[in-house]
Structures are given as structure tokens and as C-alpha cells.
Write a structure and sequence with these properties.
By secondary structure, the chain is mostly helical. Helices cover 70% and strands 2% of the residues. It has a three-stranded antiparallel sheet with strand order 1-2-3. GO terms for molecular function: transmembrane transporter activity.
Length: 493
């Protein structure tokens, strides 16, 4: 009966349109009152505070701030230029440029939707001019955005490490943020290869491509060096930033606000070494971000939280004094935008902490584990059922809410089946990454469709092969633990 009150209230709230954070909080309060009356609510405030007081969670607002600053400093444009200079001459070079740019920018933002918004305004028009239909262009960029929460520094891994820490104990090693960061590298690179393989077989209208082959990327982007970019939080909330107008809505994230993408990937010959070197030097400020973050963590110089703070300061210095595309009057707007995004995420974390407390206090997780283990003795079948549940959840929930909801329910089961926390963390993150491109929510796909100016349903048609390929990679990661454990084990993490 307690399970019915908790999950029933949660689903009803979602169905009538209550935000996820409020739905989790209201259902938790309702269940506490159902089991113990008004007096049982006494510890609720201390539980909410405890959920937010973790030092590790400080990394989230700092990474968000660094991402917002980097988007305004023209880093995404410079990364596109560098990738295009290296691979624009190749057949399907534009597709590879899109995927590799997403890979590079994801190492800055730590968020899938933010990656799509930052690079989509440049690359979706370019893909369309190169002969790809808008739905395939949008789906390719949206799927590439998955890398934002699979590759380090992923906000999802930070949250998983915090929540899963309660399950470390005798026979179960505590999983660290650094280990999870490295665990996502190999699966992320496998996904890059698979995405490029799928992109090679996407249909294209070559006549359109030839007719639109025009100037080099630098010329096209030189006409609009300060294109507007969208900032999207890990929760899927969208807030754009412009040159002088502050916060915008998703309606502003359109190709009209960004570069036309003309000339990207249209080069018939390999770019001269001088062009590649110049593009590389312009991209160095962005390329150094993951080096600073990951190098500092694994070099023992600072913790993940401190690395996020260093990345924020570095991004601010780059914007003000290196690229000089960030002006002092814009700094207040940046901090305001990052603060709003962080507030949304922390509200979710607070509500989800109370929700997880109810699950643990009433032994709901134990009941679910016993029930699932009684269904079948087959480890493969149980893992497939859990993956299916996570894929469905990812269609409706953001990663942070899903982690707090499902880690207490599924981690005990998976641990009992013999999986380790590292594999579980990467597996759950990949499930929720796929959810970013699946309807009915699919925030990555929604952002990409908005940029491409096509109906959401049209973009859904183009994303099917990418969803199938993503699930295939997910199965590899699930049943071959070495893919997520090899690199962190090699580094002794």
C-alpha cells in the first residue's frame, strides 16, 4: 500500500503537469503523512538540507557556470572550425565534424542538451546545405549530444557517485567521480564510431550539396562571429543567451540566430597545414578545458569540485582576456543565468533526496529487489528488464531525477546479480542518454528540431537508426564490464 501511495501520487502529479521536482516532493510528503501523520514530517527539513549539503554537489553549479561562459566566448565556433579544418575534405566529413565537435564540446559542458544547443546553430544548417535532410541533420546533432553526459566531465556521473555512495560497504567498493569519468571514455568513443558509421549511410541529395558548396568555414563564420547560442541545463530547462539581451526562450534558438554553416565540410581538398594550425591555435582555449579538469583531478592537484571551480575561473579569464568576446556588462547576466540553472537542479536534488529517504525508510527498495529476484533466476533477463525500465523512464525524466528515483530500487538488485557500481553507473547513464533523443520528451531532439525549424515528429523519424545503434552500444556496455572498467583499472582509480 505504501508503494501505491508513493508511486501513485508521483505518477498522478506528472500526468496533470506538475514539474518533476514538485512531483517527487509532494509524493514523498504524502507518503510520510500516510505512514506517520503530521508528526512524521518533523525530520523532512533536515533531510532536504542534508541532500544539498554535500561538498561534491558544489561541482554542479561550477561546471554549469563554466559551460555558460564558454558558450559566450565563441568556443563552440572555434571547435567547429578546427574539426572542419581537419576532416572537412573527407567524404562524409561534415558528419564527422559534427560528431567530433560534440565530443569536444561535451568535455566542456557536461550536459547533452547544452552541447546540442551550442553546436546545433552552426552544424544543422551546414549538414542541410551538404545534402542531408533537415530531419537527419537534426537527429545526428541531437544524438551526438548524448556524448555530453557519457563523456567526462558529466554532471550525471557526479550525481550518481553521490547517490550511490550509500551502497558502498563490505564487498562493495565506493565509486568515485574520477573513476566514473574515466569509465565513460571507452563507451563514449565506441558510440562516436557507431554514430559515424550510421551517418555514412544516411541518404543525401548531392545536387543540393553541389549547388550550395560555397565559401570556406572561416569566411562564413566571419560574417557572424558572435552568434547567439542556447544554454540548456542538465535537467532539460532551456535558457538562451544573446549578445546584449540576456535570457531568452527556446523560441530564440533558431538558425536565424546562428551561423548559416555555409562551407562547412564542403572542401574538396585537404586544408593546408597552415590553415589547420591556425584553426588549432584558435581552438586551444577550449581544448585546454578537459586537460585542466581531468589532468588536475588525476594528477592529484585538486578534487572534482575544485576542478569545476578552476574551470569556471579559467573560462572567465579566456572570455575576458583571450578571445575578448565576453564583455564585463555580460558577466552579471552569465552568473544570473548559471544561478537559475543551478537552482533548478538543486531543487530537483532536494526533492529527490526526500523521495529516496521514503523509499529507504519504508524498505520499498528491498521489496522491489525481492520481487524482481523472485521473477526469474536469469541474470540476463533481469538486467534486460531493468534496462527497459530505465529506457522508458528516460523518455519522461531527466537524469538527475531518474538517478534519485531508480538507484535505490535497482542498484541493490544489480549488486546482488554481481555487477559493480562502475558498470552500473555507466549503464544507467547511457540509458538516460538515449532518453534524451526519444519521444515524448527527448530534450536533445526537441532543441535540435527547434534549431532546424521542423516539427518534433519529423525529427523523431530521422532519429530511429541512432536510437537502435545507441541501444546496441548499451548492450555491449551492460554485458561486457571491461568496456567501462578497463581504463579506470589501468589508471588505478
Amino acid at each position: 500500500m505504501i508503494e501505491l501511495v508513493l508511486f501513485g501520487t508521483f505518477l498522478v502529479c506528472l500526468f496533470i503537469g506538475v514539474p518533476v521536482a514538485m512531483s517527487m516532493g509532494l509524493s514523498a510528503f504524502a507518503t510520510i503523512m500516510f505512514t506517520g501523520g503530521m508528526k512524521a514530517l518533523a525530520p523532512a527539513s533536515s533531510i532536504l538540507y542534508a541532500g544539498l549539503s554535500s561538498e561534491t554537489l558544489l561541482a554542479i553549479p561550477f561546471f554549469i557556470l563554466a559551460g555558460v561562459i564558454m558558450e559566450l566566448t565563441g568556443i563552440s565556433r572555434r571547435l567547429v572550425e578546427f574539426a572542419d579544418a581537419c576532416f572537412g575534405h573527407m567524404k562524409n566529413g561534415i558528419a564527422l565534424t559534427a560528431i567530433l565537435t560534440a565530443l569536444l564540446f561535451s568535455s566542456i559542458s557536461g550536459s547533452g542538451p547544452a552541447t546540442v544547443a551550442a553546436i546545433g546553430g552552426i552544424l544543422i544548417p551546414a549538414l542541410a546545405k551538404h545534402g542531408y535532410s533537415k530531419r537527419h541533420a537534426a537527429s545526428l546533432v541531437a544524438t551526438s549530444g548524448e556524448l555530453g553526459i557519457i563523456l567526462p566531465p558529466s554532471i550525471a556521473y557526479i550525481v550518481f557517485a553521490v547517490v550511490a555512495a550509500d551502497y558502498a560497504g563490505p564487498g562493495v567498493d565506493r565509486v568515485t567521480i574520477g573513476r566514473l569519468f574515466m569509465a565513460g571514455v571507452v563507451p563514449g568513443l565506441i558510440l562516436v564510431v557507431v554514430l559515424y558509421f550510421i551517418a555514412r549511410f544516411l541518404p543525401r541529395d548531392m545536387e543540393i550539396a553541389k549547388a550550395n558548396a560555397a565559401t570556406h568555414l572561416s569566411e562564413a563564420m566571419g560574417k557572424n562571429p558572435r552568434s547567439r547560442t542556447a544554454t540548456v541545463t542538465a535537467t532539460g530547462a532551456v535558457a538562451s543567451t544573446a549578445d546584449n539581451t540576456g535570457l531568452l526562450t527556446i523560441d530564440d534558438v533558431t538558425p536565424a540566430n546562428a551561423s548559416s554553416g555555409g562551407g562547412i565540410g564542403m572542401r574538396a581538398e585537404r586544408a593546408p597545414a597552415g590553415v589547420v594550425f591556425k584553426a588549432f591555435m584558435r581552438a586551444v582555449p577550449g581544448l585546454l578545458v578537459p586537460v585542466i579538469i581531468l589532468g588536475g583531478i588525476y594528477g592529484g592537484i585538486f578534487t572534482p569540485t575544485e576542478s569545476a571551480a578552476v574551470a569556471s575561473v579559467y573560462a572567465l579569464v579566456v572570455g575576458l582576456f583571450v578571445t575578448r568576446e565576453l564583455k564585463l556588462p555580460e558577466v552579471f547576466k552569465i552568473f544570473t543565468s548559471a544561478g537559475i540553472m543551478s537552482g533548478r537542479i538543486m531543487l530537483i536534488i532536494a526533492s529527490a533526496t526526500l523521495f529516496a529517504y521514503v523509499i529507504t525508510r519504508n524498505q520499498i527498495a528491498r521489496h522491489v529487489a525481492d520481487w524482481m529476484l523472485s521473477i526469474t533466476d536469469s541474470m540476463v533477463l533481469l538486467v534486460l528488464i531493468i534496462n527497459l525500465a530505465l529506457l522508458i523512464a528516460g523518455m519522461f525524466l531527466d537524469a538527475i531525477s531518474a538517478f534519485y528515483l531508480f538507484i535505490p530500487l535497482f542498484v541493490p538488485v544489480l549488486l546482488e546479480l554481481g555487477m559493480n557500481l562502475t558498470t552500473i553507473g555507466v549503464m544507467m547513464t547511457m540509458n538516460l542518454a538515449i532518453g534524451l533523443i526519444t519521444p515524448p520528451v527527448g530534450i536533445d531532439l526537441f532543441v535540435a528540431a527547434s534549431i532546424a525549424k521542423i516539427p518534433f515528429g519529423e525529427a523523431v523519424k530521422g532519429v530511429v537508426p541512432f536510437v537502435v545503434s545507441g541501444i546496441a552500444v548499451l548492450m555491449l556496455v551492460t554485458f561486457i564490464p571491461a568496456l567501462s572498467n578497463w581504463l579506470p583499472d589501468l589508471l588505478g582509480l
